[in-house]
Predict the 3D structure of the following.
Amino acid sequence: MITERNSIAAAGPRTRSARSLQINLSLLQAFRRSPVDFLDVLLANGANQVPLRVGSERVLLLDDPAQVWELLTVHARHTRKGRGLVRARLLLGDGLLTSEGEAHLRQRRALQAAFHPQRILGYLGSFTAAARRAADRWSDGGEIDLVAEMSGLTLDGVGTALFGSDLRGSAAQIGQALADLLAGFRLAMAPGGVSLVRSPLPTARRVRRAKADLENVVDDLVRRRTADPSDEPTVLDLLTQPDFTEQQVRDQVMTLLLAGHETTAMALTWALAAIDQAPTVRADLEAEWAAADESRAADQPAAALPSATLPVTTAVLAETLRLSPPSWMFSRRIVEPLTLGGRTVPAGTMCLISPALLHRDPRWWAEADQFRPQRWLRPKAGPPDRFDPKTPGHPRGAFLPFGAGPRMCIGEQFAWAEAGTVLAELGRTWRIHMINTRLTPGPSSMTLRPKDPVRATTSRRDAA
């Protein structure tokens, strides 16, 4: 029997062109609706089998973990950033996320010291303080916008930890600017996105204004640091070196502001929503947090990261990153022909890699759509169980919340530490209940955001 794709190939040019146009329109509409819809349309059109023509691109969706791992590690030097990160440069400049080659390597080396495990241990106090400041504003039975609260909280923590600055006074401005930039990503990814971002369209004007606002915030951070240096070095000290221009510093700081708080804020939002629907998980978490409170002295500096001291908390975050990865898709462009899974992938092909797809594939995950944090816990003699990222038994490449290979996220351990600390600190005092119990992904953007505002109520645990 002739398959639909073979039928298209055998049809005349006019038929193929019409079918290709139909697929492209379907993909564009699906991308605007949600990541889930976009991935569904790609799969329905066989993009995981043979490259699919999307506009001027040849797109291949990699859904096999072994091939994904091979591409990101073994063949890393034969790839470049895909379309998404190229277009993201319009919004974030040429920072660590969007740079290539020697520039990327130089930037990564310059920033590496800020993400050393010992330095991250020193950031825990900043994360704890930020969580307490947020929680101090809450009231028993009060209502909050969970996305706004988590965004403001993580921005507070990142500002203190990485930049040595209190960003609370600029939180609303920064939050709105970042939201406008994320909305601008959808514009940048549309056909003719480069021209659209520079056009007089209202969205484009908001994007340019947001970028200018963020650059002003960054300039102010640098000026304050120059005028009042402290004994404790910050990221700004690592960047304000003779071999970095002012624009390069801006680009790096803007990238860190987005990556350092947006992804963690979204992970916390999805995690708190999941916990609210899993009373047994909540009970396990509260028992762990109570035990941690008993074992720690007041205001004593932490001796280990949450991943070592809070296994259930870390398992909840891992399961959240599996089901709702903030970085839901990224891509790599092949620069010379290579072999993946026994097939030759031509140069120029854009390979799409979707953690959102890989993380829910029932071939690699038991009860793939279920929230089961215990899958990450390895029992040992006597409680507590130990968090072990290998316990689920999934193959390499099936769990990629931070990517893999030489471009793996530099802030992975920072994110684990920030999210674990915040979740535990908030949970010591508060329970958060969703008003709308079911969260669904919104329009596709750089991160996986809920579709609708996330309204929640706060209740004190001692009053529950």
